[in-house]
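W.,

You were right to be curious about this one. When I first looked at the sequence I had no strong expectations either way, so I just let the prediction run and decided to look at it fresh. Below is the sequence, 95 residues in total, followed by the output.
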Amino acid sequence: MEALIAQLVGGLVGGGASGKAVKAADLGNIGNLIAGAVGGVGGGALLGPILGAGGAAAGGVDIAALAGQFVGGGVAGAVVQIVAGLIINKFIKKQ
């Protein structure tokens, strides 16, 4: 559960930051956050088993694994937000 939250928060941060950094892909604040959250959770779900993350330490929460989930979610959220933003902005002209 903690990994999912870390992926979600990372995706929100990555999507929001990438939307403002790449003006051609900007979907507005809410659009950037939604695209980033979807990308963060989706990317984390795909990368988690590959990287072997998601396990907890013997005494509780594994901080390194959560940090990895947060960063992975942020990167995936940024990528999905940029791709979605470029596609949406290409086909729907803003006035």
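Here's what jumped out at me. The chain has one domain: 2-91. And, maybe more interesting for your project: The mean pLDDT is 85.

Coffee later to discuss?

I.
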